[in-house]
Amino acid sequence: MRRLDSTRDIDDLCARTNLSEGYVAVFATILIWSTPSLFQYYLNRYYDPWAQNFYRYLVACLAIAPLVFYRIQRRSPPLNWRAVMICFVPCLPNVVHQITQVMALFYMGPGVYTIFTRSSVIFTALLALAFFPEERHVIRQWQFQVGTLLGLIGAFGVIWFQPGWKSGHIALPGLFIAFTATFCWALYGILVKRPSAQLGSIRSFGLISFITSALLLPLTCAFGKITTPLHAGSHANFILILSAVTCITLAHVLYYVAIREIGVALAQTLQLLCPAGALALSAWIFGERLTHAQLWSAAILLLGAFLAMKTKPVATAETSENI
Asked: Which terminus has fewer CB within 10 Å in the chain: N or C?
């Protein structure tokens, strides 16, 4: 058996380990992020968009807080104003994304919305090209380009062939809101890379969830109903807590790990796989059905995701903590 007695061998082993960790993290987020639109669609019956997002992020902040304090007490340096400032910037598009994605579900079903939001890959690719030169090797690969194109065609095909499209089944304001949510999600994915790399997955999301909650509080007081949990009932409140802990806290931490290890563009593109789970669950729970043309569009979307998976990222040299 060949011994790993050189620095190059050890570096190659560490790179493979980091890539494996990144792929495990991204596929875990794919599984979890097949469900948020279903939770939000259900909670729209009880919570207005402002209150729903404020309380979901408040629960997420409380859920991650013990891990943040553990990190600080164990080995990590304490958080300071510089850390707060680098986390504040991605919180702005995150707030817009959270509000608009819930509003979009008043105009379309959770399965259709989940597919439509996969068009964020084109915005992510362009933004990653502008912000991160180290990711340009991924964007230049033909598998990524063709996969992204097919993903976009599939995503818009699902919307275009929706029954009642030409008769106004989906209002233009709904499309604009969904488009805004999609763009802001791509922008958030780009801007969150820096705090994730510098602070680590747990501490960066702890700060981001706290800042996001703080930004949503005055919006909820002004436009929503801050007392909603008192009237929603225990079942709805339990669903809200469950969605917050899994879809926000756990998924975001894993997503930050994926971004750190395999890059923004590839981590975002692999999210094209989420609609498969969302469609199946939405059909089972809410009775949402797709036409044959929409199913073909979804198949094209998944083919694009498969091609995007064939790209080969390189390990980044940034230093950050593990979960």
From this structure: N
CA distance 38 to 286: 9
Give the tokens for residue 60. 């997420």
Is 220 within 8 Å of 98 (Cβ atoms)?
A: no
Tokens of 235: 């079942």
Structure tokens at 86: 């680098």
Round to whole Å and give the CA distance between 301 and 297: 6
- Which amino acid does the sequence have at 29? T
CB atoms under 10 Å from CB of 189, counted, come to: 26
Which among 125, 157, 138, 129 has a CA at the least distance from the CA of 302? Answer: 157
Q: Are 272 and 121 in contact (CB under 8 A)?
A: yes
> What rounded mean pLDDT belongs to the chain?
78
pLDDT digits (tens, 9 = 90+) for 119-167: 676 677 667 766 767 666 766 777 777 877 887 788 777 767 766 544 4
Q: How many helices (H) and strands (E) does the chain have?
A: 17, 0
Q: What is the pLDDT of residues 273-322, one digit of tens each?
A: 777 778 777 888 888 777 788 788 878 877 876 676 566 544 332 323 33
Exposure string of 29-52, with b = 16+ CB inside 10 Å and e = fewer, is: bbebbbbbbbbbbbbeebbbbbbb
Residue whose entry in the numeric block shows the structure tokens 């949503």: 216
Query: Is a pLDDT exceeding 90 seen at residue 102?
Result: yes
**What does each C-alpha distance from 58 to 8, 88, 93, 227, 297 come to in angstroms?**
45, 16, 17, 14, 37
Query: Of the candidates 64, 90, 57, which has an alpha carbon nearest to the alpha carbon of residue 250?
Result: 64
**Cα diameter, the chain:** 69
**132, 268 Cβ separation under 8 angstroms:** no
For residue 224, the tally of other CB atoms under 10 A from its CB is: 20
